[in-house]
Amino acid sequence: MRLAVIVLAAGKGTRMKSDLPKVLHRTAGRSLLDWVLTAAGPLGADETVVVIGHGAEAVADSLPDDAVGVVQEPQLGTGDAVRVGLAACQRRPDTILVVPGDMPLLTASTLSSVVEAHHTGGAAATVLTVKMDDPTGYGRIERSGDRVIRIVEQRDTDERQRAIDEVNTSVYAFDAVLLADSLGRLGTDNSQGEYYLTDVIGILNEDGHRVGAVVADVVEGAGVNSHRQLAAVGEVLRRRINDGLMADGVAMIDPTRVYIDAGVDVAPGTRIYPGVHLEGSTTVGEGAEIGPDVHARNTAIAAGATVRYSVLDGATVGSDATVGPFTYLRPGADLRDHSKAGAFVEIKNSQVGSGSKVPHLSYIGDTTIGEGTNIGAATVTVNYDGFEKHRTVIGDRVRIGSDTMLVAPVTIGDDAYTGAGSVITHDVPAGALAIERSLQKEIPGYAERRKHRASQDGQ
Asked: What are the catalytic residues?
């Protein structure tokens, strides 16, 4: 049996009120189209064709290597879209699975059940349906026993048909030969003047063929046509992700307040507090504690690390390192094992060596810090001269005094010290103490004279 999957992704999505094609809107770490393609992936289809239209170039660029995009132009309805997709199939499929590109809650197991029921039931077509308390807006399924005899679009229903609670999800498995024949016989005698794919079901019945159905959980029938619906499906997807992680041994204090993208890797034994957002290619090692209130994107957090009240973007956090509170790790920040980036610290494009600490109120940019070094409060590596960035190198076991300005390019040797309040503009040899500050002066009676002068000025 040769299977082809045709994904319908040509729609503009006018209710999204966005220039971005509807199927490229993202939720829980993937675009709507990505979610659909991910669900279809385990079917092992011989080919996958994505029918595109609005924003065709952007949608085509987003496709994985094993999917082919084909443009529907002009867009003349779902029947025409499937006809375009079928014409692009190269491997003479026996079965066609048609899936909308805006239904991210579909699961691989449900799609597999449709294909399996289609094969075992000997039907010309098999429709995936759901039952809704309020089916308004959806095409109704008319049955005769276990056979589907007709799908009636909402705008074409009469009073009796509007009372039917079983609706079409627009997911179908078709016999490829019978589908091609039926598509060639479609007309446009409907309120939209389009070629409806749903009319194929009526044609197949008229020809004496059997059309079956698989009833799915109503959740999987949800499509996305607005930002409100996008948010609603995102909530379901995040719940699925969190439930899976918790089943694998990840502890969550309040999973309703944890936002983890698909593709994020969280090891068992991790503890996640409320207000945590993990996005992109982020990984979290075993035994790490994340949160409360952490936003990490494309960041690697190793086993045993602790991150609280912080933002991490493109950073690396070593094992048993601590980050936060109120820390900003920018791209290229690399904290080695047992290191620390503390309160109100910003680190960018810098390595903090094993056991080294930047405890508070500091900016570290374009810097290499060795092992066992301590950076005093309010230290700044002054990396930008107004034209170019320069690098600071700080050795092992260095003690940088509070409120030190390290004006790059500059190197601080191993075991060196800097005095508090210094502006270091030259290299400091290993083991040396560098102090750069003016002599302190006291002016006795200054306060009394200033008070007197102020009173005179006021007269």
From this structure: 360
> Domain map of the chain by residue range?
3-221
Nearest one of 238, 231, 133, 217 to 171, comparing CA atoms = 217
Alpha-carbon span 152 to 141, nearest angstrom: 7
Cα–Cα dist 211/233, whole Å: 29
5-14 pLDDT, tens digit each:
999 999 888 8
Phi, psi of 185 (to 5 degrees): -110, 5
Superfamily, domain 3-221: Spore Coat Polysaccharide Biosynthesis Protein SpsA; Chain A (3.90.550.10)
Q: What is the pTM of this model?
A: 0.91
pLDDT exceeds cutoff 70 at 459: no
For 290-349, what is each residue's pLDDT tens digit?
999 999 999 999 999 999 999 999 999 999 999 999 999 999 999 999 999 999 999 999
Instruction: Compute the distance between CA of residue 243 and CA of residue 237 in angstroms, rounded to an integer.
Output: 10
CA distance readout (Å), 432 to 364, 404, 411, 416: 22, 15, 12, 5
Structure tokens at 440: 């302190």
CA distance 361 to 397: 20
